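Example record

One chain of 120 residues, shown exactly as stored in the release files.
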Amino acid sequence: QVQLVESGGGLVQAGGSLRASCTASGFAFGMYAMGWYRQAPGKERELVASISSGGITYYSNSRERRFTISRDNAKNSVYLQMNNLKPEDTAVYYCARHRGPSLQTSPEYWGQGTQVTVSS
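Predicted structure tokens for this chain:
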């Protein structure tokens, strides 16, 4: 079955960096778009960034590119590099497998999430 396991969250001071990782299993990783989403307390889950099977990326906030999504198909993994973190970035970050290879597909499977907490 599809499994997505996130790691790399933690507590960091404002201005710091973290790298979240998601390791996938149970499907042909290279054939699917992947995404990173986050959910802050009391808010809806939102897209942070996504990457197609071919490596095309999309960012929900393109004006302030502090985050970078990447993938390593040989390792069945997708990453989210988070730089210059702000307290408002505090959330549970989820990895998701989308329904197909393109960025236009929606998320279908979710990991358990990794907590990112940014202190001021």
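Notes: The longest strand covers residues 18-25.
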